[in-house]
Write a structure and sequence with these properties.
The complex is a heterodimer of chains A (301) and B (357). Chain A has a domain at 68-267: MetI-like fold, CATH 1.10.3720. Chain A has 15 helices and two strands. Chain A has helices at 2-6, 8-36, 60-67, 69-102, 108-116, 123-134, 139-150, 153-157, 169-194, 197-205, 210-221, 223-239, 242-247, 255-263, 269-300; strands at residues 39-44, 47-55. Chain A has a two-stranded antiparallel ribbon. Chain B has two domains: 2-229, Rossmann fold (3-Layer(aba) Sandwich), CATH 3.40.50; 236-356, OB fold (Dihydrolipoamide Acetyltransferase, E2P) (Beta Barrel). Helix content of chain B is 23%, strand content 36%. Chain B has 357 residues and is an alpha+beta fold. The two termini of chain B are 36 Å apart. In chain B, a hairpin with a 3-residue loop joins β12 and β13. The chains are: A mainly alpha (301), B alpha+beta (357).
């Protein structure tokens, strides 16, 4: 690979499409949104324009976002819903990734395929499918009622009351876990797969129980995969709006929905941009916190 | 009393028999080697002692207790892995203390014992290092210390030298022998390196294709191998195929094509097709015909000079190529023969072995 870098022409030929893409389709729009966040609706002929925005470098949008507790509350709620979904993803995905990496070579590709399979179906359709599962007369309630009746509980406590599983925080968390699970399984699989099996045997050999081996050897040695998985799930969760929109109803809004509304229904691009950047700063803050924590852990060890 | 008894142990993986009805007894404080070519089942045998594999049949007793179904973390044995398996996320001291910490030994005692053992393997000054700051030899010492700190009844070593260079390997062989004598516990080492096994072990079990071919002291294995495989695997050997024509109190008479009928001493029974075996260093090479019943005339085809010895191959007039090792006793030895010279090879009857074919 070193020769690539020496040969400048080859290097730039190969690097330019990607760089161009990144510059014009990511950094430039991001810059525009950043500028928009310091704008206000243009006044044309004494009337407030519906479509035009003027960059006046006003801080009003940020002031509005920070002064009105509604938005901070929603950002905070989005953070904890995302955090909860991410932790649930980790708890569910770790055993899955473990089983896949310890499965026989013949089975591994098929098991991995099963994890990726949902990607082949459109997100919207998958989310609607979840509605069919969770609604009052959905499959979960149907199954619960069947068990309830089979145990003759209806004769003791009266007929089965369906659980309210949709249009609340539970539904949003469940939806996020479902949608982002593969992003957790894959990095975990990659790091467990790389784990030297003799490390685990050595730990057992030295008298550690299976549990102690898991906590003291397996988890620390697969930490890179755990951290990648957490980041890969947490960040898209924080910005997601479709799941909360379809499964969350009105009382389970996330910040993504508020931003979406500013850009679409409310037609207030400057304020939507300011909220977007606030969300990004929160994400940066969390990433910085993580970097700080791992650095601390390394210096201590 | 034997500390380890392997009784009729068989291990099958699917349809493949890795270990086939093995029987080995290892005495306390013995330095025991399991020697064999790769794939002979020696590592599987060691892993069954450690508890990572369960025998398909038979039983394994450690200090009189049947451990066949005992989990690895409950066995009074510890292992040095071929890859060393030193935990990369812990310091040397934490690695060594690990086995004590997880079994509830108090922190102060853990530290004291870990430091003690590091002293023993001469790594006391590197306790705070991380494994990636250590050389291969140092990592091996960490693995060794980590196992020894548990004060096991038996220390298992899986090909411990395979990742070391020749010089370091020799040094570690001496050091392992010293350690074993110093702490006086049983060592069981698995290796494919016959020199390693011969120089270190009190006794050796030679394995081939899952079966234990012979268990004996190094001297016995070398001088009295009980099969063609053992004779050929340990050291070099010349094999001359022949037919038994008679037996008496003095030994057996064997007819070999280019040797004629020869009588050699032999304790056991022998009949039918056999091989006469003689080690290269037991053969004398002379320019004139010597007085012996076991003589072969031939031409030197190559001459490899090793400083202290020379390894010479001689093509007899009829019969297979023979290897001869001569001591270069004088500075002029090398002048005594050269490629293409006609020479006589001879050896004594009592240096000849009769092996079944």
């Amino acid at each position: 690979m070193e020769s690539f870098r020496k040969n400048q022409r080859v290097f730039w030929t190969l690097a330019s499409p990607g760089s161009f893409w990144l510059l014009f389709f990511f950094l430039v729009p991001l810059g525009i949104v950043w500028m928009l966040s310091f704008g206000e609706k243009a006044v044309i002929d004494g009337k407030i324009s519906i479509t035009e925005t003027e960059i006046t470098w006003t801080l009003a949008n940020y002031v509005r976002a920070l002064a009105d507790p509604v938005y901070l509350v929603i950002i905070w709620k989005s953070v904890w819903i995302s955090a909860l979904a991410t932790i649930l993803c980790l708890v569910i995905a770790y055993p899955v990734a473990f089983v896949i990496s310890f499965a026989s070579r013949r089975w591994q590709p098929w098991l991995l395929l099963a994890v990726i399979l949902p990607f082949w179906i459109n997100l919207l359709i998958r989310t609607y499918a979840l509605i069919a599962v969770f609604r009052t007369r959905g499959y979960v309630n149907f199954t619960l009622e069947w068990i309830y009746d089979a145990l003759w509980l209806d004769r003791l406590f009266g007929p089965f009351e369906p659980l309210e599983l949709l249009y609340n925080d539970f539904a949003v968390v469940a939806g996020l876990v479902y949608v982002f699970m593969p992003f957790m399984v894959l990095p975990l699989y990659a790091s467990i797969e790389r784990l030297d099996r003799s490390m685990l045997e050595a730990s057992l050999d030295l008298g550690a129980s299976q549990m102690a081996t898991f906590l003291r050897v397996t988890v620390p040695l697969t930490m890179p995969g755990i951290v990648s998985g957490l980041i890969l799930v947490f960040i898209p969760c924080l910005g997601s709006f479709l799941t909360a929109d379809l499964l969350g109803g009105t009382n389970a809004t996330m910040i993504g929905n508020v931003i979406e509304r500013q850009f679409k229904a409310a037609n207030d691009w400057p304020f939507g941009s300011a909220l977007s950047f606030l969300l990004m700063y929160v994400t940066f803050g969390i990433l910085a916190l993580r970097a700080l924590l791992t650095r601390d852990a390394e210096t201590r060890a | 009393m034997s500390i380890i008894s392997i009784r009729n142990v068989t291990k099958k993986f699917g349809g493949i028999t890795a270990v086939d009805n093995a029987n080995i007894d290892i005495a306390a404080n013995e330095f025991f080697a399991v020697l064999g070519p790769s794939g002979c089942g020696k590592t599987t045998l060691l892993r069954m002692l450690a508890g990572f594999e369960t025998p398909t049949a038979g039983e394994i007793l450690i200090d009189g207790v049947d451990v066949s179904a005992m989990a690895p973390n409950k066995r009074p044995v510890n292992m040095v892995f071929q890859s060393y398996a030193v935990f990369p996320h812990m310091t040397v001291l934490a690695n060594v203390g690990y086995g004590l910490k997880v079994t509830g030994v108090p922190a102060a005692e853990t530290r004291r014992r870990a430091e003690e053992v590091l002293e023993l393997v001469q790594l006391a000054h590197l306790g705070e290092r991380k494994p990636d700051q250590l050389s291969g030899g140092q990592r091996q010492r960490v693995a060794l210390a980590r196992a020894l700190v548990k004060r096991p009844k038996v220390l298992l070593l899986d090909e411990p030298m395979s990742a070391l260079d020749a010089k370091l390997r020799e040094q570690m062989q001496l050091e392992l022998t010293r350690l074993q004598e110093e702490i006086g516990i049983t060592f069981v080492i698995v290796t494919h390196d016959q020199d390693e096994a011969l120089s270190m072990a009190d006794r050796i079990a030679v394995m081939q294709a899952g079966r234990v071919e012979q268990t004996a002291t190094p001297e016995l294995l070398y001088e009295s191998p009980n099969s063609r495989f053992v004779a050929d695997f340990i050291g070099k050997v010349n094999l001359l195929d022949g037919q038994v024509t008679g037996a008496s109190d003095h030994g057996v008479t064997v007819e070999v094509a280019h040797l004629g009928k020869v009588t050699v001493p032999h304790a056991g029974r022998a009949h039918g097709q056999v091989s006469l075996a003689v080690r290269p260093e037991k053969i004398r090479m002379t320019a004139s015909r010597p007085e012996s019943s076991l003589i072969v005339q031939g031409r030197i085809v190559d001459w490899a000079y090793y400083g202290d010895t020379s390894h010479i191959r001689v093509q007899p007039d009829n019969g297979p190529l023979m290897s001869v090792t001569v001591q270069n006793e004088t500075r002029s030895t090398v002048e005594n023969g050269d490629v293409g010279d006609q020479v006589w090879l001879s050896w004594r009857e009592e240096d000849t072995l009769v092996l079944d074919r």
